[in-house]
């Protein structure tokens, strides 16, 4: 950058991305000597912004970024290309998206899938059981960050919360093709909606991506059985994916804790050393076959 960009006490370093609610910048908070994510909000309704920012501020979960500040910027202390308007300052997450992680490393081992699946389900259960339930509605691998310590963070959370109050019949449904549940796509004649089961559907697609390495968000958005891409997937995990992604909401798991209960009762919990040995043998047979060495 030829000219230093500033927003009050924040020194803007670089843009991080842009979503449906605004653009996000990496910035340095010079007063507290820490990095932050500064999100410019395109919404101009002050009452709505303050209400929802306070709501987001009060959420407390290890997978949710902290909210540091909310302010209106204008005039002095504002430099191009920063514009007059509302800004939300949040914890900066240093890492890469789960999407990028899978693109780089390929499909994941089932043990790691279980570990991260439990973390995602835990934050979904937390959001869905608030006094005012929060439906994320745009859950996807791009919105989950893999941190340097191996933990996960759910980001771009402002869009979900800012859409969770006062949803009107003419409001635009937020979703991503390939991850969105069928009920979110009812654009002809209206009727689009989302609830806890919609997030569970998207979670199932993330599970699929993790265990197969095949991105459900790539056209034509159709997914074949996970076992066709990863023959070593356990039957239990494939059943969980299948039930999460049923077309009919009533056929899915109804709450995140139901999914977690099935995962906890899966092969990782029941198999012990014998199951681990069998999985090891299965993997060796698969790899040998893949390399073109025939089996007698």
Total helices: the number is 10
CATH architecture of the largest domain: Orthogonal Bundle
Considering DSSP H and I runs of 4 or more, what fraction of the residues is helical? 25-40%
Number of domains: 2
* Range of strand content: 15-25%
Distance linking N and C termini: 64 Å
Task: Show unreliable segments.
Answer: 161-170, 270-277, 284-288, 292-296
The largest sheet is: 6 strands, antiparallel
Radius of gyration: 21 Å
Q: What is the H/E order?
A: EEEEHEEEHHEEHHHHHHH
- What's the CATH class label of the largest domain? Mainly Alpha
CATH superfamily of the largest domain: Transferase(Phosphotransferase) domain 1
**Per CATH, what is the topology of the largest domain?**
Transferase(Phosphotransferase), domain 1
Shape verdict: globular
Structural class: alpha+beta
Q: Give the strand tally.
A: 9
Widest sheet: strand ordering: 1-2-3-4-6-5
State mean pLDDT (0 to 100 scale): 82
Structural topology:
Layout: E1 5-7, E2 10-18, E3 22-29, E4 34-41, H1 46-57, E5 67-73, E6 85-91, E7 95-97, H2 98-105, H3 110-128, E8 144-147, E9 152-154, H4 157-162, H5 196-212, H6 226-229, H7 235-244, H8 256-264, H9 267-270, H10 272-290
Antiparallel strand pairs: 1-2, 2-3, 3-4, 4-6, 5-6, 7-8, 8-9
List keywords for this structure.
globular, alpha+beta, three-stranded antiparallel β-sheet, disordered C terminus, 2 domains, about 300 residues, Phosphorylase Kinase, domain 1, six-stranded antiparallel β-sheet, Transferase(Phosphotransferase), domain 1, 10 helices
């Amino acid at each position: 950058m030829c000219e230093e960009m500033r927003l009050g006490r924040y020194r803007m370093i670089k843009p991080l991305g842009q979503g449906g609610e605004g653009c996000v910048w990496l910035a340095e908070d010079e007063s507290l000597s820490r990095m932050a994510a500064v999100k410019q909000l395109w919404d101009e309704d002050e009452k709505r912004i303050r209400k929802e920012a306070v709501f987001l501020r009060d959420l407390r979960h290890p997978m949710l970024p902290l909210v540091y500040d909310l302010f209106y910027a204008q005039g002095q202390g504002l430099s191009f290309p920063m514009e007059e308007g509302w800004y939300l300052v949040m914890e900066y997450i240093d890492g890469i998206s789960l999407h990028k992680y899978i693109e780089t490393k390929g499909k994941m081992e089932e043990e790691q899938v279980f570990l991260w699946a439990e973390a995602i389900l835990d934050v979904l259960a937390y959001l869905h059981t608030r006094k005012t339930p929060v439906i994320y509605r745009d859950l996807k691998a791009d919105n989950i960050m893999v941190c340097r310590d191996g933990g996960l963070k759910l980001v771009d959370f402002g869009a979900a919360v800012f859409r969770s109050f006062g949803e009107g019949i003419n409001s635009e449904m937020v979703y991503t093709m390939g991850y969105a549940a069928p009920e979110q796509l009812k654009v002809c004649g209206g009727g689009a909606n989302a609830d806890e089961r919609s997030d569970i559907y998207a979670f199932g697609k993330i599970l699929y991506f993790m265990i197969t390495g095949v991105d459900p968000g790539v056209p034509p958005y159709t997914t074949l059985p996970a076992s066709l891409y990863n023959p070593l997937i356990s039957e239990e995990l494939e059943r969980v994916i299948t039930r999460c992604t049923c077309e009919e909401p009533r056929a899915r798991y109804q709450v995140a804790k139901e999914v977690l209960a099935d995962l906890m009762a899966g092969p990782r919990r029941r198999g012990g050393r014998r199951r681990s040995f069998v999985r090891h043998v299965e993997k060796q047979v698969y790899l040998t076959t893949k390399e073109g060495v025939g089996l007698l």
